[in-house]
Amino acid sequence: MVSARSAIVVATLLAYGARDDMRLVRKMKMTKVILSKSLLEYRREMAEIVRQSVKESFIGGVKAFHSGEPFLAHPDLLPPPKIEIIELTTYKGQIGDPIFLATSDDFGIWNVHMVVRDDKGNLIESGDAASFEDGSGCWHYMATASVPSGTSVTIYAAATDSLGGVGALSQSTTIP
User: Fold this and answer.
1) Using only C-alpha atoms, what is the Rg of the chain?
2) Counting C-beta atoms within 10 Å of the first and last residue's C-beta, which end of the chain has fewer, N or C?
3) Could you give all domains of the chain from N- to C-terminal order, each with its CATH number?
4) Distance CA 153, CA 60 (A)
């Protein structure tokens, strides 16, 4: 069995085209691991993020609190959450009207935040949506503000997953 460290050494050697060093690998009777360039680049980026995090967060063996932004996920490996649909057929601009959302994510959506703005960009309301208890990826938001008939509004939704990835979608409608 090949250790993770050995696989990384082989992958690094392959990535840098170190053919002379590959003789050493063959003598060690290891399985060659071939990784794509995008995966190697992602590994290098992540290693640099970890080095920086350790450097900034640990001082003399004591972990310091760091509230910085989460790392940006590599689009091929850690896709962000996706809001598939904002369903506005039941939203008539009245308090208590529901707005439904369908979401998808590989890592579980942690939060969906909603914002409603008028056509001039003025904030009408905002808040967090609630997930359906069946774990279907469906969410609902109950309106907390009344909107006059004929007003054009845009509903913005942003989903955050457990790894810090963010996906967003917006949809416009005119209040009947």
Assistant:
1) 24
2) N
3) 4-62 (no CATH), 82-174 (2.60.40.1220)
4) 53
